[in-house]
Amino acid sequence: AKKPRYEYNLVRVDASQSKITTFMAKSQPETPIGSQIPRSSNANQEQEEEDDDDDEEEEQDTNEDEIHEERHADLPNHNQTQLQYMTNTKELTTINLKSILDLRGKLQTYHSKPLTELFANLTYIGIIDSTRRLCSVQYDVKLLIIDYGSVTNELFYQLGLLNFGNFGTIELQGTDEELSIESLLSVLYKDPNFKPSKSIKEVEQCILEMSEMYREYFQIQFTESGIIKTIPILLKNYMPPLEKLPMFLYRLSTQVSYDDEQCCLDGILRQLALFHIPLSLNEDDDSKVNELNGKLENVLIPQIKRVLVAPNWLKKDVVEVADLPGLYRVFERC
User: Fold this and answer.
1) 304: helix, strand or coil
2) CB-based contact 151:317 (threshold 8 Å)
3) For residue 84, which of 205, 201, 170, 197 has the smallest C-alpha distance?
4) Which residues form a coiled coil (predicted)?
5) 136 three-state secondary structure
6) Would you say the C-alpha torsion 269, 304, 278, 46 has a positive or negative sign?
7) Phi and psi of 257, rounded to 5°?
8) pLDDT tens digits, residue range 142-192?
């Protein structure tokens, strides 16, 4: 006999219907939304439980600290700095570096099929906490909260890895003084809470020694006098927050191991990904939050759905908060 189809097992897919955000009034609770969401487990989500290697888990914990410990600065005349896309006329290069091929292979090693399917078929609802970088999405009959900081970090890392050696270019247009490594770092070093492990000169020297590699593989171009001219395009129609440029330069010198090729390339790609993560925003800044919401809905989430190969460690950044059958069981008693 054919099983009956109950309403609570159906999913609304009509794009013309109102989203849940239509009925949500903005408020300012003392405790941010999602502050009680456990980040270390995802017990409600019906996915395969896979054990990660201890080394990988430790690596991701460190990387997560970097994601959420954000330090940026207002650059001089930042709002007036012009950015320009440059047409890349170079033919696509086939990358045969063993280090890059091995890193691409690791994506499949730590791939979670159920989680990848979730990201490929989700429907974006909206930002619920721009300070903690949390947004809500729907998947099947479930309402979920995801940490878009962690998810976009993995997205940009994978985009960098897959497009390695074939990036487009964004030209930074400003005065030499504004775009010099020394000037950019000085903004960061003026922060009394910032505890650098290297001097500005040491950071600049390290970067300039590797400038040829940055230019060839990553389209990050420096002049001999230490002026940054270009940065790579990881995702069209998305601009990295330039407030994070000083920290990006600092981390290139202090957080990347240049002694081993694979560690070096992987480290630079990780720092590029951190540089591209959306800023944590004050919820009172409506214009910036609305702009970010549009970028998530129209640029970032569609790209996540298309290309993200979700690793196991992203499970902790996806939390189920409700499901349609459960809501029916609650409200049918009313």
Assistant:
1) helix
2) yes
3) 170
4) none
5) strand
6) negative
7) -90, 120
8) 899 999 999 999 999 999 999 999 999 999 988 888 899 999 999 999 999
